[in-house]
Write a structure and sequence with these properties.
By secondary structure, the protein is an alpha/beta fold. The protein is built from eight helices and eight strands. Helix 4 packs parallel to helix 5 and helix 6 packs across helix 7. Bound molecules: adenosine monophosphate. Adenosine monophosphate (AMP) binds next to helix 2 and helix 3.
Length: about 220
């Protein structure tokens, strides 16, 4: 079982790197934001409960989020592990995850922080566009589609998520950076934390994350 937590502020590139790690490790990419959006589209009780918080750029309450994540990790495709993206976002969630894994003889093997200064994040986030059909991500300046407003991969229209609009971004960053710090400190204290520079190009960030994971797997990373 390999349980990797990807940490970073919104816009740090977690989703992009999670896809790379998924292909490399052969374990599912579990993003709580995606789980909430899927639940909302299906109008499940969790989706409807989460909607107001998501629209306001706020965190969904811990109990709802933890229940949803544990249900996801209990599915067969996660038996060999998972890459968590967007969870944990609070110290309460981090402790709940540790307890859930400990009960199954596991632990968080690595908590990988993709570090990007706060001032870079608003610029990155306000350029993000997502395809309607499958959520393929684009960026107005860093990763534009070949045809404006259209997904390269499936031709579906691109849209900007409500929570990627500038006014929502500022609220989201302010409320989430403090929580991120608490989670980072949690994994610093357990010894699982590894930090990479998220200002580097995508390929270099991937390489740095891969090297950090190899060091963890080889037991040479100085983990106490
Ligand atoms: P994301 O796609 O990770 O930016 O998540 C979109 C929204 O889903 C967030 O703004 C929150 O409202 C909610 N969300 C996702 N993950 C969590 C989490 N671990 N804890 C609380 N709320 C979350």
């Amino acid at each position: 079982m390999m349980l990797v937590v990807l940490l970073g502020a919104p816009g740090a590139g977690k989703g992009t790197q999670a896809a790379v790690l998924r292909d490399r490790l052969g374990i599912p990419h579990v993003a709580t934001g995606d789980l909430f959006r899927t639940a909302l589209r299906a109008a499940t009780p969790i989706g409807l409960e989460a909607k107001a918080y998501m629209d306001a750029g706020q965190l969904v309450p811990d109990d709802v989020t933890i229940r949803m994540l544990e249900e996801r990790l209990g599915r067969p495709d996660a038996a060999a592990g998972a890459i968590l993206d967007g969870f944990p976002r609070t110290a309460v969630q981090a402790r709940a995850l540790d307890a859930f894994l400990a009960a199954r003889g596991g632990r968080v093997d690595a908590a990988l922080l993709i570090d990007v200064p706060a001032e870079d994040l608003v610029a990155r986030l306000s350029g993000r566009w997502i395809c309607r059909a499958a959520g393929h991500p684009y960026h107005a300046t860093m990763n534009p589609p070949r045809v404006a407003g259209t997904c390269d991969l499936d031709g579906s229209p691109l849209y900007q998520r409500d929570d990627d609009r500038p006014e929502t971004i500022r609220a989201r960053l302010a409320s989430q950076l403090a929580d991120l710090d608490a989670v980072v400190e949690h994994y610093r204290s357990t010894g699982a934390l590894r930090t990479v520079d998220g200002r580097e190009p995508i390929g270099e960030v991937s390489a740095a994350l891969g090297a950090a994971l190899e060091a963890v797997a080889a037991g040479t990373s100085g983990r106490a």
